[in-house]
Specification:
The complex is a heterotrimer. Chain A is about 25% helix and about 25% strand. The model of chain A has no long low-confidence stretch (mean pLDDT about 85). A five-stranded mixed β-sheet of chain A has the order 2-3-6-5-4, covered by helices on one side. The termini of chain A are far apart. Chain A has helices at about 15-25, 50-60, 125-135, 175-185, and strands spanning about 5, 30-40, 40-45, 70-75, 85-90, 100-105, 110-115, 135-140. Chain B has a three-stranded parallel β-sheet. Chain C is about 45% helix and about 15% strand. Chain C has a three-stranded antiparallel β-sheet, covered by helices on one side. A three-stranded antiparallel β-sheet of chain C has the order 11-12-13. Chain C has a two-stranded antiparallel ribbon with strand order 4-5. In chain C, helix 17 (about 450-460) runs antiparallel to helix 18 (about 465-475). Mean pLDDT of chain C is about 85; it is low at about 15-25. The interface between A and C is large, with 47 and 60 residues. Strand 1 (about 5) of chain A pairs antiparallel with strand 6 of chain C, so a sheet runs across the interface.
Chain lengths: ~190, ~120, ~475
């Protein structure tokens, strides 16, 4: 049960993000579309076909060793650029203290990408949320269903063509409108002091 | 929750939190009500035996608050008969206490069949 | 014989508002598959508090989205604000003055102590130690009173702002905080004597929810929940922000990875926070608390005082000659005090007017006049005063007000790009991923909430234990549903 207090930073073999991007480009030359750098953070834009291989490489390679998936999310670039969606993986290596970002392009007509659950177990709920909010399906996911919205909700809220205020009246979620209707009917029987 | 702790004690007003709706008189709807949660809240309210009262605590429960989005209900009065509205984001403990005292006042002035005995 | 007959009982356990405990963890629903008393499978259902903060952030400017972050993890609002502000400052590329960095560290650590106190209160309450709940809230009241002293709000503070903090801290705040650090060490010992060696506590927390370091990292756990398993990952040490690289502190690491170790980690973290607070108060430098970057930060509001805090009551009058009848002020008025037909001069009903200046800001034709000392004057006098040119003071204040309004609404001109910045909130790693398209509103604002990930690990932690251990596990992963569902 011993609790040890950790003091100063341990020495690490930190690699510059630009170099990690170069290594990815060497290993998967046809997959990499572009390397973007902004405020000393580097993103590697890749095609989605071998994303599982890329993630496995980044996770297993002893010098890169990105064991911590900080975040998995998606961005909808409707109207701004093609392809429409990008699935973003923010990776970090706790041992070596370097970070890299992978952006996988997902076109609108084929919104399916390989699931990376075999590599990081915790990506499970991230992918469910992506599916819920954007409609991107993850092939190979153990249990892909809605997580934040109710199970029978229609539409994918974070897409750019979904209105912020949602749909009211007829197109609203049926269980909600049912409860409101029923409570209006029961209003006559409400407790009156 | 701070209202229930020792600084702003709830208990001295005769109010105590109960574990089950069957043993309660009043339900405090605290925080944002989302559409997914509406059937659950209504079911809890339906389980409270009469006489029963509802306190909407916080701006989100009163009117939806800051969140005018696809998943938020604009006030819990759309599906519940509310007796007291306690505004604030979040309401101070003193505000909630005043709300409860207002509810007690309302109960005292009731004209129901058995209220003279209460 | 009987062993081959397995009885499956699926019971829905609602840990939600109303029943059982007053708002401990929020609206989390767990479906347990039980085999007698042992758990076979746990399925958490979240989303009962999903308010669409990410989508809402896309329609508001960077300044307007800041109060939304308060309401995610409403227990430690300062930390959320700091996380957002650090990310946005990196995106804008502005430097924060030293004093503001130290003040942010101070309030961040206060919020950490406040969060751990609430965590301990609710965790102990769930397991059965009710006295701890009352003791912890007593201390939490002190911290919340200190928050009220600096910014006026207890819970949803919005005190750290883009470019620094909102206002400077008074000396009595620092004195009271120093006294708090003196007394709090003894109080932590009080809590520990209540439960640390208690047989019941040990039985209910030791050996429960064990997860190895490697597996915990694989599941995406962060914060004290991860450090209890032996992995030394603390963003304050790995990627320091604010004043964390200038103060000395240790990071407690556990070894077993069970509920008891995480509890010890958090208790030791509270002690470390006290150390950081003392160092920050001693080292606090003088200087400004807001960065001087007028293109990216909000400027002080002194110039607007004649309108926002007038000495005499003012009246708002529409100048009949200048008014084009466009109806902008009519739609903007929150009290519906303006009436008028299209293309004809509008009129303000003085009885309903709230003097909020919303109409003044929305008029593009400068037809709204502000008359100082005009409240209560008759109509003719008001119209007369409206026809005269506005006094200089009001004119300048008015320009400032309109400029500020437009700036907040439209947002600054931000460079294009995407950015992920993580900070260490009391619950774990809070990350903000911004995609900026050059306008003043974030194109995509993604919040990586630690509670969301930890709620996903719950099935892994609970399998094989008894039903009562589910409560210990929920307590140890320290989730707040506001953050989990956003």
């Amino acid at each position: 049960m011993a609790v040890v207090l950790s003091r100063a930073a341990t020495p690490s073999q930190r690699i510059e993000p630009a170099q990690i991007a170069e290594r990815i480009k060497e290993k998967f030359p046809e997959e990499v579309v572009e390397i973007v750098s902004f405020r000393d953070q580097v993103s590697v834009i890749v095609r989605k076909s071998r994303i599982l291989g890329i993630c496995r490489y980044l996770h297993d390679d002893p010098e890169i060793s990105c064991d911590h998936l900080q975040d998995l999310t998606a961005v909808d670039y409707k109207g701004k650029k093609e392809p429409r969606f990008e699935v973003v993986y923010n990776l970090y290596s706790i041992r070596h203290r370097h970070a890299i970002r992978i952006r996988a392009q997902v076109p609108e007509n084929d919104t399916s990408i390989s699931s990376t659950v075999p590599v990081w177990a915790g990506v499970d709920w991230h992918e469910r949320e992506c599916f819920d909010m954007f409609g991107i399906t993850f092939a190979g996911h153990p249990d892909l269903r809605r997580i934040l919205m109710p199970e029978d909700w229609e539409g994918h809220p974070l897409r750019k063509d979904y209105p912020l205020k949602g749909y009211e009246g007829e197109q609203d979620w049926k269980e909600f409108t049912d409860v409101v209707k029923r409570s209006r009917e029961l209003k006559d029987f409400d407790w009156q002091g | 929750m701070a209202v229930g702790a020792s600084h702003y004690d709830f208990d001295r007003f005769g109010i105590i939190f109960r574990g089950s709706p069957r043993q309660a008189d009043c339900v405090i709807v605290a925080g944002t009500v989302t559409k997914k949660m509406v059937p659950v809240v209504r079911r809890v309210f339906d389980q409270i035996p009469e006489p029963r009262y509802v306190v909407a605590m916080g701006s989100c429960a009163c009117t939806g608050g800051v969140f005018k989005t696809y998943s938020t209900v604009q006030g819990c009065e759309t599906f519940l008969p509310v007796d007291v509205y306690v505004p604030g984001c979040p309401p101070r403990p003193e505000t909630l206490l005043e709300g409860m005292m207002m509810l007690q006042e309302k109960i005292r002035n009731e004209q129901a069949r058995w209220s003279p005995w209460r | 014989m009987e062993q081959s007959e397995k009885i499956f009982e699926t019971r829905e356990l609602n840990v939600s508002m109303g029943p059982q405990h007053p708002a401990t963890h929020g609206v989390l629903r767990l479906v347990l598959d039980l085999d007698g008393e042992t758990i076979v499978k746990v399925t958490p259902y979240v989303g009962y508090l999903h308010r669409g903060i990410e989508k809402l952030g896309e329609s508001l400017s960077y300044f307007q989205a800041l109060p939304l972050t308060d309401r995610m993890d409403y227990v430690s609002a300062m930390s959320n604000n700091i996380g957002y502000v650090v990310a946005v400052e990196k995106l804008f590329g502005i430097e924060v003055p030293e004093r503001a960095k130290y003040i942010r560290t101070i309030v961040g650590e206060m919020s950490r102590v406040s969060n751990h106190l609430l965590w301990l209160a609710t965790h102990a309450l769930d397991i059965g130690a009710m006295t701890v709940f009352l003791y912890c809230f007593r201390d939490r009241e002190w911290i919340l009173d200190l928050f009220e002293m600096i910014c006026g709000a207890r819970l949803t503070v919005t005190y750290p702002r883009i470019g620094g903090v909102r206002n400077d801290v008074p000396q009595e705040f620092l004195d009271s905080l120093w006294k708090f650090t003196d007394e709090f060490e003894a109080r932590i010992v009080e809590y520990e004597t209540l439960i640390d060696q208690n047989r019941i506590w040990l039985l209910r927390t030791k050996g429960i929810g064990i997860i190895s370091g490697e597996e915990a990292v694989n599941w995406g756990m962060t914060g004290p929940t991860l450090r209890g398993s032996g992995v030394s990952y603390d963003i304050r040490k790995h990627m320091p922000y604010d004043a964390y690289d200038k103060v000395e502190f240790d990071v407690p690491i556990g070894s077993e990875g069970d509920v008891y170790d995480r509890y010890r980690c958090r208790m030791l973290e509270m002690r470390e926070s006290i150390k950081i607070l003392r160092q920050c108060i001693e080292q606090l430098p003088a200087g400004p608390v807001m960065a001087t970057a007028p293109k990216f930060t909000l400027q002080p509001k002194d110039a607007m005082m004649p309108i926002t805090h007038p000495v005499n009551e003012v009246a708002y009058v529409v100048d009949a000659k200048a008014c084009k009848g466009c109806g902008m002020c009519l739609r903007a008025c929150p009290a519906k005090a303006i009436a008028g037909e299209k293309k004809q001069a509008h009129k303000i009903d003085q009885a309903l007017c709230l003097q909020c200046a919303t109409c003044f800001v929305s008029c593009k034709f400068k037809a709204l006049k502000i008359i100082p000392g005009g409240k209560g004057l008759s109509e003719d006098k008001l119209n007369e005063a409206a026809a005269m040119p506005m006094p200089d003071e009001i004119k300048k204040a008015g320009e400032h007000l309109v400029a500020q309004f437009e700036f907040i609404k439209k947002g600054p001109k931000v460079p294009e790009g995407d950015l992920y910045v993580a900070t260490e909130v009391p619950k774990g790693e809070l990350g903000f991923y911004f995609v900026s398209d050059g306008s003043g509103k974030p194109y995509r604002m993604r919040v990586r909430a630690p509670s969301f990930i930890h709620a996903g690990v719950l099935p892994r932690l609970c399998v094989g234990h008894l039903v009562a251990d589910v409560i210990s596990n929920i307590g140890t992963i320290d989730i707040v549903l506001g953050e989990c569902d956003r």
